[in-house]
Amino acid sequence: MEGGALTALGMTAGIIGLMVITIERYFKIVHAIAHRKYYHNWMTSVGVALPWIGGSSLILFPGMATTRIADGRCQRLTFWPNEAMALVSHAFHDGATNMYHRKLAICQENVDPR
């Protein structure tokens, strides 16, 4: 559990949590009638648990399975069972990071400088 695994878990859960909040707010504002009709209290509990379940599934479990000590150093997310799994992991991480930075840049462009 060393080497920033819990930090990465928290950061991933934070990003997923922001996406959950954004989607929920979108439906509450844009589809207000449907939101009132179909929204239930259990959905809030799922929205709170989902980021941590997703973060664990995307960061913690793969980290435990693919971490090895090589040359006296702990190398996290390095030793994948096959090349396809490594490719998917790196593509997901790069895509999520790029999407976050694009959204941040768009939000900064839309801020009125007055």
The percent range for helix content is over 70%
The end-to-end span amounts to 47 Å
Rough shape? elongated
Number of strands: 2
Overall residue-averaged pLDDT value: 80
Summed up, the helix count is: 4
Q: How many distinct domains?
A: 2
Q: What's the Cα radius of gyration? A: 18 Å
Order of helices and strands: HHHEEH
Oligomeric state of the chains in view: single chain
Q: Could you explain the architecture of this structure?
A:
With 114 residues, the chain is mostly helical. The protein has 2 domains: 5-79, no CATH class; 82-114. Helices cover 75% and strands 5% of the residues. The protein has 4 helices and 2 strands; from the N terminus they run H-H-H-E-E-H. The protein has helices at 5-30, 32-38, 42-66, 83-109; strands at 68-70, 73-75. It has a two-stranded antiparallel ribbon with strand order 1-2. Strand 1 and strand 2 form a beta hairpin.
Compose a concise summary of this entry.
With 114 residues, the chain is mostly helical. The chain is 75% helix and 5% strand. The protein folds into 2 domains: 5-79, no CATH class; 82-114.
Q: How are the secondary structure elements laid out?
A:
Layout: H1 5-30, H2 32-38, H3 42-66, E1 68-70, E2 73-75, H4 83-109
Antiparallel strand pairs: 1-2
Helix pairs in contact: 1-2, 1-3
